[in-house]
Amino acid sequence: MADYSRLSRLPVPLLEWYRGNRRILPWREDPRPYRVWVSEIMLQQTRVEAVLPYYERFLRELPDIPALAAAPEEQLLKLWEGLGYYSRVRNLQKAARTVCEQYGGELPGDYEAVKALPGIGEYTAGAICSIAFGLPTPAVDGNVLRVVCRITGDETPVDSPALKRRCREELAPLYPEGAAGDFTQALMELGAMVCLPGGAPRCGECPAREFCAACASGDPERLPVKPPKKPRRIEQRRVWVVLSPAGVLLHRRPGRGLLAGLWELPGAPEGEGFPLGWETPAGAEPIGTARHIFSHVEWQMEGELWRLPEARELPEGWRWADAAALAGEVALPSAFQAFRGFLPKA
C-alpha cells in the first residue's frame, strides 16, 4: 500500500541536497520564462548534454519570443537539425505567435494559460510556471514519477494517468514558499542523477533514503512498475545518395507523419525502385548500412551512391542542394547521419 505521507519529509533534505549538488545549467542560471520554455521543449526525450549546444545557438539567433515567432521555417528547422522530433520546434513557434497575438510577446504567469499553448502539456506548464514564475505547480515527468513511486512504495503502473494526477496533487502542497523553482528542479535532478532509471539507484547518496519505501525494501529497482514494451516496427529501406554538379538530390517529406515536411535523402521500402523512376546509372555503388530508431519504428537502411554527369529536371517537392545549402539552409534529419560523409562539403 502506497504511503504518500512519506513525501512530507522530503522538501528540507531535498533542497539542501540540490543546492550542494545541482548541475550548473544555463537555464538555471538565468531562469527567465522564454529561456526556461525553450530548455524544457528541447529536453523532451533528449539528454542534457545533447541539448546544451543547441540551446546556446538557438538563443543567440532567436533571443526572444517575437524573434521566434517571426523566424522563417528553414531557419527554425536548421537550428533544430539533429535534435529530432521536429514537431516540437514547430509547436514552439506556433505558441510564440499566439503569445505575441494574445500576451504582447511575453509568456503569461498563469498555469492554465501556459498549458493552453501549442506543444505545452501539464508537465511543461508546471515546469515553466514553477521555475520561471515561482508558482507551486509540480512538473511530473518520468524522473519525478520514479522518485515518488520509490519513496511512497506506489505500485501503480507508471503509465497510468491516475498516478500522474495523484503525484501532482500530493506534491503541490509541499512546495516551499519562495523556492518553487528549486523544488521542481531538485525533484528532476534527484531522478536524473541519483534515483536512476537504468542500473542501480545511488541510494547511499539520496537525501530521501531514511524514509524511502523502495530503499527499505532492499529492492529499489522493482519500482516504478513499468508496462510491457510494445515491439517496435522494423522497416527495411533503400536510401540513395544521388550526386550531380548541382549538389545532392533531396526530397521533401509529406506535411504530416514521420519527419513531416523535412528534406530527406530519397528512399523507398526494400524491393521498390527509385522514387522518380530513374534507371540505376553505371557505376552505382553500395555505401553501407545504417540503422535509425524512432519512437515506434526502426529504419534499417542500405545506402547506394549514384553520380550523375549533369543535374536533371525535378518535379515539385524535389531539389538539388549544394554544400552551401546543406551548411546554412537545409535541415537534414539525423536518420541520415551515416551517409553525410558522401554529401557535398564546403
Automatic annotation (TrEMBL):
<keyword id="KW-0378">Hydrolase</keyword>
<dbReference type="Pfam" id="PF14815">
    <property type="entry name" value="NUDIX_4"/>
</dbReference>
<feature type="domain" description="HhH-GPD">
    <location>
        <begin position="42"/>
        <end position="193"/>
    </location>
</feature>
<comment type="similarity">
    <text>Belongs to the Nth/MutY family.</text>
</comment>
<dbReference type="InterPro" id="IPR044298">
    <property type="entry name" value="MIG/MutY"/>
</dbReference>
<dbReference type="InterPro" id="IPR000445">
    <property type="entry name" value="HhH_motif"/>
</dbReference>
<keyword id="KW-0004">4Fe-4S</keyword>
<keyword id="KW-0227">DNA damage</keyword>
<dbReference type="InterPro" id="IPR029119">
    <property type="entry name" value="MutY_C"/>
</dbReference>
<dbReference type="InterPro" id="IPR005760">
    <property type="entry name" value="A/G_AdeGlyc_MutY"/>
</dbReference>
<protein>
    <recommendedName>
        <fullName>Adenine DNA glycosylase</fullName>
        <ecNumber>3.2.2.31</ecNumber>
    </recommendedName>
</protein>
<keyword id="KW-0479">Metal-binding</keyword>
<keyword id="KW-0408">Iron</keyword>
<dbReference type="InterPro" id="IPR011257">
    <property type="entry name" value="DNA_glycosylase"/>
</dbReference>
<keyword id="KW-0411">Iron-sulfur</keyword>
<keyword id="KW-0326">Glycosidase</keyword>
<dbReference type="InterPro" id="IPR023170">
    <property type="entry name" value="HhH_base_excis_C"/>
</dbReference>
<keyword id="KW-0234">DNA repair</keyword>
<dbReference type="InterPro" id="IPR003265">
    <property type="entry name" value="HhH-GPD_domain"/>
</dbReference>
<dbReference type="Pfam" id="PF00633">
    <property type="entry name" value="HHH"/>
</dbReference>
<comment type="function">
    <text>Adenine glycosylase active on G-A mispairs.</text>
</comment>
<dbReference type="InterPro" id="IPR015797">
    <property type="entry name" value="NUDIX_hydrolase-like_dom_sf"/>
</dbReference>
<dbReference type="InterPro" id="IPR004036">
    <property type="entry name" value="Endonuclease-III-like_CS2"/>
</dbReference>
<dbReference type="Pfam" id="PF00730">
    <property type="entry name" value="HhH-GPD"/>
</dbReference>
